[in-house]
Amino acid sequence: QVQLVESGGRLVQAGGSLRLSCAASGRTFSSYAMGWFRQAPGKEREFVATINWSGSSTVYADTVTGRFTISRDKAKNTVYLQMNSLKPVDTAVYYCAADDRPFRAYGPQDRREYRYWGQGTQVTVSS
Questions:
Q1: Cα separation of 2 and 32, whole Å?
Q2: Residues near 98 by Cβ (< 8 Å), separated by ≥ 6?
Q3: pLDDT at 2 over 90
Q4: What one-character-per-residue DSSP string does the chain give?
Q5: Interatomic CA distance for residues 48 and 80, integer angstroms
Q6: Computed from CA positions of residues 82, 96, 106, 59, in that sequence, does the dihedral angle turn out positive or negative?
Q7: 1 falls in which pLDDT band (50, 70, 90)?
Q8: Contact 118, 5 (CB under 8 A)
Q9: What is the pLDDT of residues 93-119, one digit of tens each?
Q10: Do residues 117 and 4 make contact, with C-beta atoms less than 8 angstroms apart?
Q11: Tens digits of residue pLDDT in 51-83
Q12: Are 33 and 107 in contact (CB under 8 A)?
């Protein structure tokens, strides 16, 4: 059974940092792009960041560029999201996802391109 399990979300003050982790089990995703999305109350799930299968390419939403960094450790089958300079608008449930197609040069930004999803981890940024 394929599982993606996010962790690391918690309450943090504005300006603080968090590192989210997403551990995959049940299969390896070393040939697939991985992505992070987030969903705030009353809003649609939105793209945050993606990393391609090799780790050579990353793409970020404009709202997080320069503050967030996505990375992956293939040996651990884990993807990370380092979040710095957090703002209250970053408050959301953060989800990781695995691409539906292998060996893409760039990870997709459309959530419909992702096949597997985690259950989410709550990040709350207080002002």
A1: 14
A2: 4, 24, 29, 32, 33, 34, 35, 114, 115, 116, 117
A3: no
A4: --EEEEE---EEETT--EEEEEEEESS--TTEEEEEEEE-TTS--EEEEEE-TTSS-EEE-TTTTTTEEEEEEGGGTEEEEEE-S--GGG-EEEEEEEEEEES-SS---SGGGEEEE---EEEEEE-
A5: 12
A6: negative
A7: confident
A8: yes
A9: 999 999 989 999 999 999 999 999 999
A10: yes
A11: 999 999 999 999 999 999 999 999 999 999 999
A12: yes
12-45 pLDDT, tens per residue?
999 999 999 999 988 889 999 999 999 999 999 9
Q: Which amino acid is at 62?
A: D
| Tokens representing residue 37 in the block | 């999305």
Determine the Cα–Cα distance for residues 78 and 95; give it in Å rounded to an integer: 13
What type of residue sits at position 52?
N
